[in-house]
Amino acid sequence: MSNILFLDKMQQVIKSYDSDDFMECVQTKEITTNASELMNDTLSVSLPFDETIKDASYIAVSDTKEQEFSLYRILTAKDEDNLLSSEAINFAVDELDNFIIKDVRPKNSSFSYVINQLLSNSGCDWVLGVCEPIKTVSSTFYYTSMREALKALQELGAEFTFSIEITGNKITKKIINCYNQIGKITNKRFEYGDEVLKIVHQQDRTNIVTALIGRGKGEEVGDGYGRRLEFSDVEWKKSNGKPLDKPKGQNWIEYPEMTEKYGIPSNGKMLPRKTVVVFDDVEDANELLQKTYDQLAYYCRPLVQFSTEIMGSDSIGNTVSIHRGDRDYHYQTRVFKVVTDYVNGRVQASLGDNLSGNSINRQLSQVQSNISDLDSNKMTWYDSTEIGKYQDDIMRGAGANGGSIYMVNGIEAGVSQSRETYEQVFMDGPKIQDSQYFMIQNNAGISFKQCKKGQWTTIQDVHNGASTTAWTLDGTFNASFIAAGILAGVLIQGVVVKSIGSNSFFQSVLSNGAFSIEQYKETNNVDYTKPDWQKDVHGGKVGEFIGTYDGSTKKANGSALINYPGYILSINQDGGNGSSTPVFQVPSDSTFDKPKFKLFGDGTLQGDINIKGNFYVNGVKIDTNGGGNSGGGDTGWNGKYPPEVTSDRDKRYWQIWAMAIGAGFSKQAAAALLGNAQGESDANPTADEGGGRPGFGYGVWQWTDSSGVSSGRVYMINLMTRAGVTDDPDTITAQFKLLMWHAPNGQWIATSSYPYSWTQFMTLTDINTAAQAFVSNFERPLNSHPERSTWAQEWYDKFVNLEIPSGGGGYIPPIASPITVSSEFGWRISPITGAQEFHNGIDLVNGNPNTPILASADGTVVSAADPGYFDWYGNWTVIKHADGMYTGYAHQSRVDVAVGQNVKQGQQIGLMGTTGPSTGEHCHFQLMDEFYPSSNAHFHNARDYIKF
To answer: What are phi and psi of 649, to 5 degrees?
Structure first.
C-alpha cells in the first residue's frame, strides 16, 4: 500500500490516497540509452471522480524513505464515466529547464562543487543530496538551463535521480542525487531460459566480432600524433584468474569459443573476426587491455532484451548476471526499466540490451551488421591507417596546437550536389567537437560563429550555426568588430555614438543631438535594417542634456538638463579620492508634478527671494503668525516611560500626557484630554464602537462620520489624509497628531458656557473647566459627562509629579553625514510592490554605498544576520538598549557583530548594502519597544529621537 498525494499549482497538498483507492496507478522509470538525456519517468493514474482534486496540478508517489516522494506534473486529465484519469511526467526535468545558469566555468572542480555552483548561479531552489562521482569537471556553462547542464554532466559519466520531501502539506526540500551509476551491483544471477526470465526480443549480429585490436593514446609529435599505445607486451592467463588467455607479442584479444562458432572459415579452420577499437584517453597498456576486453565481451554476443517480475520497484539501475550455458558465456547487465503497478502490486523489470525504440544498442547492432570483413579488404591495416591520417591532415590540418582548417564542399554544406569547395572553415581546436570558435570564408565574405565546446559535431552543424558577418565581399566592414585602436578623422556623422568604460554600470550616448547617461546595455550585433534598431543600443535613461526650442518660432532657445524619475541629478564637490559629495541635488523621488531639489553646505543668495508656498526652518513653519505646523506638528513623544508607569493601560495614558505636555498643554488641560479619552475609549486607539459599521466612532477620541456614510475608521483615515498625517492610523501618535489638526480646523467650536478657543483651552489651569470645555466644544454629546472631570483629576494626581524621561539625546544617527532621508517613517507607496504599506523605519543614505553602519547607542546585540527573523530585512542587526528600546539596521552587505556581543555607541556593526527586497544601497533604521513588534504601534519614528 503506497501513499499517493495530489497537489495544487502552488505545490500544496490537497488530498492523500492509498493505492487501494485507485483503479489504475502505474509508474514507469527508464534509464535512457543516450547519456545526453535524463531518466524517463512517467505516471498514469485513474480513480473515482473526486471534486477536490479535479484541478490538481501535481501527483506525489512515496519512495522508500518515509517523507521522500517522486513528484509528477499532470500533463493531461480527463473526466469520463465518473472516473478521473491523469497522465503525468516527473516534474524535475520540466522545472529545471526554467532555471538559467548565467556563467559558470569550472576548471578541474569536483562534481559536487560544480553542481552546487550551478544551483546557486541559476537561483534554483533544489539542493544536492548524494554525490558519488569523484572525477573532476572542466567545462563552460553559459546561459544554459539546469536541465541541459545536468545532461552535460551525465555525458561525463554520471546518472541523476530526483525526489522531494514533504512535511505537513507542503514541499520542504527538492533533492538532486548524483551517482556514478544508478542502482547497485547485486549477486542476482539469471540462467538463460529460466521461467522467471522472459526473452522480450533477441537480435543476432550478422557480423559478430570475436577479436579486438585495442589502441590507446597516440604519441605527440611535431606535426600531430604518431604511433598509438598497444598492449602487445601485456600477458593474460586464465590460470591466473584472467577471463581470457592473451600471450605476449599479440596485439589483439580473442574469445576462442566465439571464433569457433562465428569466425571466418579459411583452409579448414576458423579465423577470428577482428576490428579495431580506439581509446584516445588511455595511456596505460594494462588499462587498455581491460577496456578492450570489456568491449569484446559485449560485441561478441547476440543482443537480448529480457523482462522479469521477481525484482522490486527500487531495482532500477541494478546490475545482475546473465549466464548462457549452451554458448558458454556470461555477462553483467543492468535493469534499465521498471514498471510498477501500485494497484495490484506487480513490478515488471526490463534488463539486458534495450532494443526498444531508437536505442543506442539497436543502432550499434545495425551499424555492426554492415561492417565488411576486415580480411576481405585488400589494403593492410597499416596502409589504411596512414592513408586515413593523410586524408585527415588534408581536410583539417594536423597542427599540434590546433588552428585547424576544413575545406567544405557543396554537398557537405548542404547547398548543392557539387564536390567543389564551397567554403573554408577555421577552427580553434583539432576537430569540430573540440572547437568553440569558427571563422568562415565563402561567397558572402568573412563571418564568425561560436558554440559551446562539443555542441557542434559535424560540418553541417557549423554551416547551419548562427553567424555574424564581419566583412562582406563588396568591402563593407562591420564596426562591431572594432575592439581596440584609434579612429582619426575630422567628422563622424551618424545617429548614435556610445562611450562605455570597462565594467561600466552606465553608458554615455550621443544621439539625435542629445547627450544622455543611460543604464549600461551590452550591444554586440545590430541589424540596422530594422526600423527599431535603436532599442538594441539604448539602455534605460538616467539623465539627459538636450537643446530646447521655441515652439512658435521653431528656433533653438536654450538648453536643459533633464532628470528621469527614480534617479538623482546632482552637482558634486570632488573629495579627492574618487568620491564626491553633492552641493545641489534633484532627488530620486522628484517628479514632473512634484519637483524637488536639495542644497548642501554653506551658501549666499543675493537679491530678493520670493517664496510661493510654505517656508520651514529646522522643521518650524515660518509665516506672518510666527509658526505652527500642519498635520499636528511634532508630537514630543520619545517612547520613554517613568519607572512608575508599568501597565499597558497606564502607558497609553502616559503617551497622551507626554505628547500633550510636549505640545504646550498645561498639565490641567493634558489631564482633561485623559479624562475624555477614558470616557470615549479607555485611550484605546483601535476601539471600534460599531464594529466597522457606518455612523459609529473609532479610536481614542471616537471620530464619527455624522453623515452616516463611512465607518469611524475610514472617516478618521480620510481626515488624516487631509491633515498630512502619515503615521500608522491605529496608533496614539497618529491620532494625537490628528487631534492637533482637527480641533483648530473646524471640530472645536466655542460655546457660551465655555467660550474658549483651542489655543486658550490648551492653557487652562482648572481641571473641571478644561475637562468640560473639551466635552462641550470638541465632543458635543447629547448628554453631559461630569464623570470625566473626576477621571481627569485622577490622572492628574497620578502623573503630575512624575518626570518625563529625556529622549533623543541618547541616540545618534547610524551613518555618517551628510545624511539624506530617502524614505520617511509612516504610510507610503511601496517601491517594491507599488501597493500602500506602512514603512516601519526610516531609510538613510549619505552618498557612499558602502558606508559603515554604526550602533546608535550602547547595547547588546540580540539578532545578527538571523535568517529566522523577518526575511524582508536582508542582513539585519538588532541591538537592545538599557531603556528597553531596540534599534534595527537592515539590508547590510556585511554584518560585523554577533549575538550576545556588547557594543558601544558609534561602534561599526556592519556595512551599508541592498540585501533582501531593496531598490538600492541604503540603511533602513528603525526603533521598536518590542523585539518582535506585535503591531505597528510598537514602532517609533526615529525623528522623535534623532535630528536628521
So the answer is: -65, -50
b or e along 792-803 (b: 16 or more beta carbons within 10 Å of the residue's beta carbon)?
bbebbebbeeee
The runs of H, that is alpha helices, within 743-853 are 758-761, 767-774, 787-799
Query: Which residue in 654, 721, 718, 717 sits closest to 683, CA to CA?
Result: 654
Contact 923, 890 (CB under 8 A): yes
Task: Please report, in angstroms and rounded to a whole number, the separation of the first and last CA atoms in the chain.
Answer: 68
pLDDT tens figures, 443-475: 888 989 999 988 998 888 888 888 888 888 877
Q: Where are the alpha helices (DSSP H) in 745-901?
A: 758-761, 767-774, 787-799
Residue 654 phi, psi (nearest 5)? -65, -40
pLDDT digits (tens, 9 = 90+) for 682-700: 999 999 998 989 989 999 9
Q: Quick check: 308 and 190 in contact, CB under 8 A?
A: yes
Spatial distance between the Cα atoms of 833 and 813, rounded to a whole number of angstroms: 28
Amino acid at 458: T
Q: How far is CA 780 from CA 13, 676, 735, 756, in A?
A: 57, 12, 19, 14
| CB-CB neighbours of 24 under 10 Å | 14
Provide the grid cell at 944: 522623535
Label residue 669 exposed, middle or buried (CB < 10 Å: 0-12, 13-18, 19+): buried
Cβ-proximal residues to 51 (8 Å cutoff; 6+ apart), any chain = none
**Is residue 583 classed as helix, strand or coil in its secondary structure?**
strand
CB–CB of 548/566 below 8 Å?
no
Beta partners for residue 629, in sequence order:
none
Give this prediction's pTM: 0.36
User: 671-708 burial, b for 16+ CB within 10 Å, e for fewer?
Assistant: bbbbbbbbbbbebebebbbeeeeebbbbbbbbbbbeee
Give the cell for residue 217. 593514446
